[in-house]
Amino acid sequence: MAKINKRLVNGVVVDISDDEMVTIDAKETDWESGQSERQLNALRAERNAKLAETDWTQSRDITLSNDADWKTYRQALRDITDSATSLDDVTWPEKP
């Protein structure tokens, strides 16, 4: 006789067979193993938004007195994933 497992699903305790439990455990393991990739993707999305906010500084139609500072800032944004792996551990550079 197969063992019946209890599992909380959407606030309700349900019976789950051993086979179903193996499938659920495999899906949870896959989800957990992808956590770092999801965190890095969130970091990249935030970084890309910050870069997009400053795209205007790189237009050849304008001259900025602190152009080098903007280039340094934007490079620091591009390099952020070298040191940070999630939004929780990032230290954003300051805008000029």
Q: What is the arithmetic mean of pLDDT?
A: 89
Work out the helicity level: 40-55%
Q: Unreliable segments (pLDDT under 50, ≥5 consecutive)?
A: none
Kindly report how far apart the N and C termini lie: 69 Å
Strand order of the largest sheet: 1-2
Order of helices and strands: EEHHH
User: In percent, how much strand structure appears in the residues?
Assistant: 5-15%
Major sheet characteristics = 2 strands, antiparallel
Question: How many separate domains?
Answer: 2
- Structural class designation: alpha+beta
Radius of gyration from the CA trace? Answer: 23 Å
How does the overall form come out from the CA principal axes? rod-shaped
- The total strand number stands at 2
Number of helices: 3
Structure description:
There is one protein chain. By secondary structure, this protein is an alpha+beta fold. The protein has 2 domains: 4-33, no CATH class; 40-89. It contains 3 helices and 2 strands; from the N terminus they run ββααα. A two-stranded antiparallel sheet has the order 1-2. A hairpin with a 2-residue loop joins strand 1 and strand 2 (12-17).
Compact overview of the structure:
With 96 residues, this protein is of the alpha+beta class. It has helices at residues 18-33, 35-53, 67-78; strands at 4-9, 12-17.
How do the helices and strands line up, and which of them pair or pack?
Layout: E1 4-9, E2 12-17, H1 18-33, H2 35-53, H3 67-78
Antiparallel strand pairs: 1-2
